[in-house]
Amino acid sequence: MKPNLLIFEKENTENDYINFSMKMKPSLSFRDLSQEEKEGLLKRREEMLQKIQKEIYDNYLDETNENSCISDDEDDFPCRAKMTGNYYVGRESYSICFLGEGGRHYSIKNGQYKYSHGDIFLPLESPEVKRAYQIIFSIRMTYYAPDGQERDYISLDFEAELHSLDDEIMVEELGMDAIVGADI
User: Fold this and answer.
1) Helix, strand, coil % in the chain, rounded to nearest 5
2) 1 Cβ contact list (under 8 Å, min separation 6)
3) What CA–CA distance (Å, rounded) separates 69 from 84?
4) Which of 111, 139, 152 is nearest to 51 (CA)?
5) pTM more than 0.85
6) Which of 125, 128, 158 shows the shortest CA–CA distance to 141?
7) Per-residue b/e over 95-115, b at no fewer than 16 CB within 10 Å?
């Protein structure tokens, strides 16, 4: 089964969390970006979506992939046999992040870089921490519910970190969850 991106035209005027039944555009978040950076990252949106679509196919929909994340057993979750192949973007986030050696994430706290998973503090002038761009897409895949209706099924979060606006986009899946309220 091939993945099929659903594009909804209804405006998300409140920038709300959306679900399949709402059929709205995704919520958008921009943090700490100049207008030029926003525009530069948004120009890469289609490229990001192409990379995500490949990941969805390879890891969730390709029946020939023996290393797939899912099975066709009706008792398993997620079950490929129940999936429609349709997906949509529920949320897009574009922001600045600070990366240290080995991809460690830092934030700025009290005038220093603070490692997000510990008590490591570095001065703001620290050469090992670089400013980067972080793009996160929350993808929602659908399935056929027991009543035959298409509904939300699973949510997949994908991330890309770019050191410049021209860097190659390398997509990493951050996680997969059942969608709360899905009739699974």
Assistant:
1) 20, 40, 40
2) 61, 63, 80, 83, 85
3) 16
4) 139
5) yes
6) 158
7) bebbbbeeebbbeeeeeebbb
